[in-house]
Design goal:
The relative contact order is 0.17. The longest helix is centred in the first third of the chain and has 26 residues. The chain is an all-alpha fold. Helix content is 72%, strand content 0%.
Length: 67
């Protein structure tokens, strides 16, 4: 039973970090034709989206007792 709870916790944290990794990976590719690069608030907006999605996932996992 304890092992099952540990796996849930690790899976929840992995899902939270996966969102950040995907978004950071796309922006780390340095495409020349990304419209967000010409906008001065592109990176701050993406950082806020990453924080927002991580907090949302954290709350969802906490509510479902995975964390």
């Amino acid at each position: 039973m304890q092992q099952n709870d540990d796996m849930r916790r690790m899976s929840a944290w992995a899902a939270i970090f996966a969102v950040i990794t995907v978004l950071a990976g796309v922006y780390g590719m340095n495409f020349a034709n990304m419209p967000e690069l010409r906008w001065s608030f592109g990176y701050p907006v993406v950082a806020l989206v990453m924080v927002g999605l991580s907090l949302w996932l954290y709350r969802k996992f906490k509510k479902s007792v995975w964390l």
